[in-house]
């Protein structure tokens, strides 16, 4: 038997223990928040027909090189999804009657055969929210608002969202007399600001023979940029859209989490309006998105405007699992003597009352049980002995303080209240 | 663009709308229940090294014929998981220090290239809970108890669990003088009882030249069987284990959901003790499981006893989505006039208070908005007009009764209370 692999596939990983508990919590928070916003959970298969994944012009050229492909037993050519947007476009094309706006939540694993590195895996979990069918800046603001709620609830204290607008960047590029055919190249260089710094971008622009004037605007605020564009009679579309988005967010008192940043362009060519990047702290990007009004059509779907935001759930998991401990169990019941059935009854009542509860299933002695409880960071232990049982009592030990107390067993109300207080539950 | 597939891969499906909402609810209930029982969420990759999936003797011979296989770009031979137990065995082999009992929850998609048919898909979602490391009947009772909680919370009114024990069946087979080498064949015939009826099984046994005496025990209760086995001095291991399991379940007042059924054997060869099948109503199987004390070793893992139960989440989804409607949104805000920012603020407050809330993102007129609200079964509408706003009010319409009421907008308490009452929330 020793010849069978005990490790997961290279570049992929098993998620266990605290990491798995934290990941589940992250997924729950994203899911519940998205549902409060009216996003609809949907599920597309991990496998897609290969033609769906290989569509040209959708900005997926890099990821297409990293595809996992296969044939099924009938020789159908298939591939594993590397993102959700291609599948979303297919669903929209195949279901033209879906009511608009179509607000979708796609959460699941995607696959890319790239070089494994820290915080990157060949199977990773993405959570995308998308609003399809609306051109309103309200939709952009909804996505940003949701991202703020999620980061807040996840416990990131210094979270913020950087936003800009492609149309604003384009107007600035035009203002700096960069010819239209060099606009994309110019943006690609700007996108490297975080990586190679201002000097690096400057050198790159110079080597591409593109004016570096644009760099002088990268620290400007929105009002200054509006003035410059107005003066030069350039398009104000991007500025005005951003003003609306920020106005809406201010109405929800969330503008404090948002930083306008004209240097933000985001790598992908397909963005047409707002672009945004979510930070869980200085330079810790945990997701991003933007408006992509032509992408769904490019991917084979109908012509529908869309805006969306995507969370890197594995990255979030790795970041948070280092800092947060989710206990597997709140209350552990140790039966002492022949009281298994009574302990089983008690553990049932605890669960019914909403506690995460377990009992010894290994017939361990007291010290082994306590050692296991300690290793697993379980906060409360109930000792259920024959004597206590005869007196309608159970002994509760708080593992942190060592404090012990005998509590009435039935009716269950007192025990429930005592445990809730100990656990800091309402 | 019309050449790109708009349909999912053959045999697989997109899950959208009410079906997706119901599926999410099912997954949430299974997950939350399992966590209350102290099961640990874990995640294994969809892809496994092919040798892991092709292990012999694990009872997966049929599923192995239905594998999706592929090579990654380095030529590694991989396959898509067709169940979770193989991966669980690999994880246990690769992580010998995992504390025991190891109580795992595996929920996700698995893949089998079989013939698509109603309620069966080539990608389907399974939810497995397993307790590894304990031989105690308490562990078997835990799995059954959890299955009862899940079916109750899902709203199945006539749910019950059929249970038996392989050791009891073996003892009965021996009692009927079926030679040991025919025991498996005998069990395979018994397993077809639901499909081909008593007469069918009788004929099949006769054609295999196996005594049909066993059939006379299939309606017996546990006490009768105990008597017969005692009289013949046959092993009582199975009977005694079942008695314990049922005694524990009685302590939780759950025995009423359990039916001992000596005809239950379940198809798979690897069960060694308790077997169980979950029914959501007469003849509607929604999951099952049992004790498999040797399987993990057969699959390449360490020698560890285990018991588990598995839910067919797609089957549950198809059954429940027909009967249950989960509304996507509880409250829909329609801004009337230039009050988008105020509406955006209001919808933010609603979500903060826990309501699933949306506002118009399409600048639709009143009648189109109401038509959309109707189609989507949204129960409450808030009309936010400039006049109402000036008077610190909002108009609430209950879509079912048509009743309308002006409610104070700020402070938010009154509106929150009114909406909660209307929605039947506490």
UniProtKB/TrEMBL annotation, chains A, B:
GO terms for cellular component: cytoplasm. It is found in: Cytoplasm. Its EC number is 6.1.1.21. Keywords: Aminoacyl-tRNA synthetase, ATP-binding, Coiled coil, Cytoplasm, Ligase, Nucleotide-binding, Protein biosynthesis. It comes from the Archaea. InterPro entries: aa-tRNA-synth_II, aa-tRNA-synth_II/BPL/LPL, Anticodon-bd, Anticodon-bd_dom_sf, His-tRNA-ligase, HisRS-like_core, HisRS/HisZ, HisRS_anticodon. Its main location: cytoplasm. The keyword Transmembrane does not apply. It is an enzyme of class 6 (ligase). Transmembrane segments: none annotated. Residues 215-242 form a coiled coil. GO terms for molecular function: ATP binding; histidine-tRNA ligase activity. L-histidine binds at residues 83-85, 112, 126, 130, 266, 270-271. It catalyses: tRNA(His) + L-histidine + ATP = L-histidyl-tRNA(His) + AMP + diphosphate + H(+). Residues 21-328 form the Aminoacyl-transfer RNA synthetases class-II family profile domain. The keyword Ligase applies. GO terms for biological process: histidyl-tRNA aminoacylation; L-histidine biosynthetic process. Belongs to the class-II aminoacyl-tRNA synthetase family. This is Histidine--tRNA ligase. It comes from Candidatus Iainarchaeum sp.
């Amino acid at each position: 038997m020793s010849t069978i692999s005990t490790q997961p596939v290279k570049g992929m990983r098993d998620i266990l223990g605290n990491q798995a508990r934290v990941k589940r919590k992250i997924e729950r928070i994203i899911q519940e928040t998205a549902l409060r916003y009216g996003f609809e959970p949907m599920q597309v298969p991990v496998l897609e027909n290969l033609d769906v994944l290989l569509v040209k012009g959708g900005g997926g050229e890099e990821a297409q090189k990293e595809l996992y492909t296969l044939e099924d037993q009938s020789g159908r050519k298939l591939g594993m999804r590397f993102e959700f947007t291609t599948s979303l476009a297919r669903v929209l094309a195949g279901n033209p009657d879906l009511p608009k706006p179509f607000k979708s939540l796609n959460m699941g694993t995607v696959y890319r055969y790239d070089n494994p590195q820290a915080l990157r895996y060949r199977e990773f979990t993405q959570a995308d929210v998308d609003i399809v069918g609306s051109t309103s800046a309200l939709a952009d603001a909804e996505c940003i608002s949701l991202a703020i709620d999620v980061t807040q609830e996840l416990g990131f204290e210094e979270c913020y969202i950087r936003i800009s607008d492609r149309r604003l960047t384009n107007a600035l590029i035009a203002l700096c007399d960069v010819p239209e055919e060099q606009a994309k190249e110019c943006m690609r260089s700007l996108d490297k600001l975080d990586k190679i710094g201002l000097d690096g971008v400057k050198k790159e622009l110079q080597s591409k023979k593109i004016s570096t004037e644009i760099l002088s605007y990268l620290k400007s605020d929105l009002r200054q940029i509006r003035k410059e564009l107005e003066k030069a009679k350039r398009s104000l579309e991007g500025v005005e859209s951003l003003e609306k988005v920020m106005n809406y967010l201010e109405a929800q008192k969330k503008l404090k989490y948002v930083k306008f940043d004209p240097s933000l362009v985001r790598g992908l060519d397909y963005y047409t309006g707002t672009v945004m990047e979510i930070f869980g702290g200085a330079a810790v990007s945990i997701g991003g998105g933007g408006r992509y009004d032509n992408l769904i059509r490019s991917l084979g779907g109908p012509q529908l405007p869309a805006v969306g935001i995507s969370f890197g759930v594995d990255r979030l998991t790795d970041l948070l699992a280092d800092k947060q401990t989710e206990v597997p169990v709140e209350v552990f019941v140790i039966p002492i003597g022949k009281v298994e059935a009574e302990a089983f009854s008690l553990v049932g009542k605890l669960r019914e009352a909403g506690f995460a509860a377990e009992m010894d299933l290994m017939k361990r002695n007291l010290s082994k049980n306590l050692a296991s409880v300690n290793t697993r960071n379980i906060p409360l232990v109930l000792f259920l002995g024959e004597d206590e049982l005869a007196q309608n009592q159970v002994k509760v030990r708080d593992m942190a303080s060592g404090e012990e107390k005998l509590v009435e067993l039935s009716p269950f109300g007192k025990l429930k209240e005592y445990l809730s207080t100990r656990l800091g539950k309402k």
